[in-house]
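Quick question, first post here. What does this chain look like in 3D?
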Amino acid sequence: MARPAIDAALVRRLVDTQFPQWAGLPLTPVERAGLDHEIYRLGEELSVRLPRHAGAIRQARKELRWLPRIAPHLPLAIPVPVAVGEPAFGYPWPWAVARWLDGEVATVEALADSAEAAAELAGFLAALQRFPAEGLAADELAADLTGAPLADRDAATRAAIAETGGLFGAAAMTELWEAALNAPDWHRPPVWFHGDFHTGNLLTTGGRLSAVIDFGGLGVGDPACDLTIAYTLMSARTRAVFRAELAALGVDDATWLRGRGWSLATGLNAYTSHAAVNPRIAAQTCRQITQALDG
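> Answer (accepted):
Ran it through. Tokens below.
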């Protein structure tokens, strides 16, 4: 399906007709930092998020179901949804209204060398993983909480390695990728993971971490995918702090190796898909890939 056209007039009609309690509140477009949603600020306290493509259309209902339960247990703010809107006026998918979170998107320049930020991020993941995951009913797990295994990315990652081997080193990428695929599986009970835990999904206020956003990949299982943050944001020194903080949670050498595999795979996917047309993504993913290769 073609991506729907989204503009302020459409968002105004959707909000005013489906949520008249917010009709007339000022509506301001937010500069897009990610690729999945168009975001508008609604008044002072709310945001409206509309999926841009079919891959993001289940996120609104999943976040409405789970984030209000999880949020009180986390040390950083998250965007708690308050309502889900229905398709209308030619817009084909569910969309969400959530609490607005102030802040700037985190940057490597500001936080890569911050041991405090590394420890805070480890604490966030620790709190998320402590939220009860065992005993979830089968229907709950079926509701988009079961993440895809790393092996599902094998064909696409090998194709990306072939495409970018001259830039990043095909032999080194292949060696890391095969090691990650062959690493032992998560040996502990399944835990919650964010699923898209990278620099662009962190907010800061006053130079300090304040919020984690975009829980479209939220799930239960192996937390290795969340180690991607160690390679998108941190330096080698602060990565060691992060790793030490997570050791008590069972994040062992095998988990780290799988995490490096996730970082390589997601970095290559973003690079081959967007780097040619988006210099910001090109710079971010080059760093992610090279940091993953460095370990």
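The radius of gyration is 19 Å.
The beta strands are 27-30, 37-42, 46-51, 81-85, 95-99, 104-105, 191-193, 202-205, 208-212, 219-221.
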